[in-house]
Amino acid sequence: MKILVLNCGSSSIKYKLYNMDDESVLAQGGVERIGLDEAFLKLTLPNGEKKTLMHDMPDHKEGVNFVFQTLLSPEYGAIKSLDEIDAVGHRIVQGGDLFEKSCLVDQKVEDGIESLCDLAPVHNAGHLKGIRAVDHLMPTVPQVTVFDNAFHSTMPDYAYLYAVPYELYEKYHVRRYGFHGTSHRYVSHRVAELMGKDIKDLKIVTCHIGNGASVAAIKDGKVMDTSMGLTPLAGVMMGSRSGDIDASAVTYIMDKLGLKPQEMADFLNKKSGVLGITGISSDMRDVENAAKEGNEKAILALKMYNYRIKKYIGAYAAAMGGVDTIVFTAGVGENQTSMREEACAGLEFLGIKIDKEKNAGIRGKEAEISTPDSRVKVFVIPTDEEIVIARDTMELVQAK
Fold this sequence. Notes:
The chain has 400 residues and is α/β, with parallel strands linked by helices. The chain has 15 helices and 14 strands.
């Protein structure tokens, strides 16, 4: 069985085509900088060689279309016809209370995802474009949706409820959902494997740090808390999202700028975060380069960014009554060595010690970056949301 996985982020699309007989990867690549200048698709050929294809991608629809074009390319593709694909699995950010597990796509599922777009304004619309592009190109191929909030469904009510009138939860489902669940699920199980321990015996803080970012507290294999909330806006500072902000500051800004609710949501989701502080970019690579050149706002943004991650690590260690291991994953977490070092600096009292030399040499590969005498083990683990999605897709399609 060949399964194509589409994993859309806020400014990126990862894709992998699997032969599920042995879980081998037939084709893989990723689109980056969607909506930004110099967007590109980077793919890995079977011999390990990487190719970068520049292509203007103003939105996710064009990004998905270019992925399909690349898969069919005589020069770089892995298939001659889309008929070779037996199923497609999609990562969906927001399932709300409608979807707490993976499911086969039908019109009801599409309508449900669309109804939740207000809760994930940056993502769900892009996911739907991917699903509908597949509907158009491969109308008979089954599709499966895997929801980011599903892994976080184990949160206790005292963690996921907001301190607002309870009837808002009962009537409108206002609560913390959490996102990046497929990634947190993968890396938490993977770090347990690397440590040779049962995940049910560990207290883990997983840090999914990319253009969108979230931190999760996982105790005994279950999520106890996570930084994102009703939408992916809450939590740590992100590429273009503000992260946590005083609700009164939101209404104050609305009044001063004369913004309507949706305009304010766009402001906090698309014009804030690292982009808002620096005025340069939402891409951390651009900001890090500017900081090296002495740009004061870029330096400030990095300090703010790292400080907020550190606060969540400390808070979740307290929430779980300790921590055994910390995992950094996703684009920034896997590659930005300075962020990992700064986010752990000053946490020695928790038993966290980073090996600075080892950390400096790790980019995009599995490794332990803590010192031998660190009570808390710190790992970099490249996330593999795609294989989790592919496995769920195969299981549901075969069951059907």
